[in-house]
Amino acid sequence: MSNRYVTEAEKAGTKRRKAAYLTRLAETGIKRRQLLLTDTETQRVKDIVACWRDEPCDLIDEELRAAKKLKPNK
Fold first, then answer.
1. How many other C-beta atoms can be found within 10 angstroms of the C-beta atom of residue 46?
2. Residue 1 domain flag
3. Is residue 20 part of a domain?
4. Where would I find the H helices in the chain?
5. What is the dihedral of CA 34, 39, 42, 44, to 10 degrees?
6. Which residue range(s) make up the domain with 58?
7. In a domain? residue 46
8. What is the residue-level pLDDT of the chain in tens, covering all 74 positions?
9. How many angstroms separate the CA atoms of 6 and 40, rounded?
């Protein structure tokens, strides 16, 4: 464990980044800490990944924009 002091600015930055990430998740309809997925939700995740890979998917325009916001390694 590090003994390094964490400044208030660093704590605020971590909170800000976490809130932004959770907002992006909420826009795509994925719940926080969701462990068990229904078949519909599993298909939605597969569609999002297919969109990231530029493969055909069943997402509507609004969902496509939200999925692209979540894409890792932009």
1. 13
2. no
3. yes
4. 8-27, 39-52, 61-70
5. -110
6. 8-70
7. yes
8. 567 888 999 999 999 999 998 888 888 777 777 667 788 888 888 888 888 888 888 888 888 888 888 887 75
9. 42
Would residue 3 count as lying in a domain?
A: no
Residue of 65, 31, 71 lying closest to 49 (CA atoms): 71
CA distances, 16 to each of 6, 8, 30 (Å): 15, 12, 19
CA distance 54 to 63: 14
pLDDT given for residue 22 in this prediction: 86
CA atoms within 13 A on the CB side of 43: 6
